[in-house]
Amino acid sequence: MTLIRKGFSQRQFSSHVGMSENYFNQIINHKKSPSPHVARNIANQLELTFDDVFQINN
Questions:
Q1: Cβ neighbours of residue 50 closer than 8 Å, sequence gap 6 or more
Q2: Which Gene3D superfamilies does the protein's record reference (predicted)?
Q3: 2-53, pLDDT tens digit by residue?
Q4: CB within 8 A of 41, min separation 6: which ones?
Q5: Which of 21, 39, 54, 57 has its CA 20 to 30 A from that of 2?
């Protein structure tokens, strides 16, 4: 998992990007969809492209 390779726990990363650990956990578990702004922030903080992190289904 990219978070672990970057040295983050879920708690640390969610705090780093300014969201609650619960909300971030819901995103990871596909229970919530992040806004485009939040999704881009997550990708940027992980130094990945948006497409590397998120799959958009029609």
A1: 39, 40, 43
A2: lambda repressor-like DNA-binding domains (1.10.260.40)
A3: 777 888 899 999 998 899 999 999 998 989 988 888 988 999 998 888 887 7
A4: 17, 18
A5: 57
Matching residue, tokens 């969809």: 33
- Please write down the long-range contacts of 12-18, taking CB distance under 8 Å and 24 or more positions apart: 13/45, 16/45, 17/41, 17/42, 17/45
CB atoms within 10 A of CB 9: 11
pTM over the 0.90 mark: no
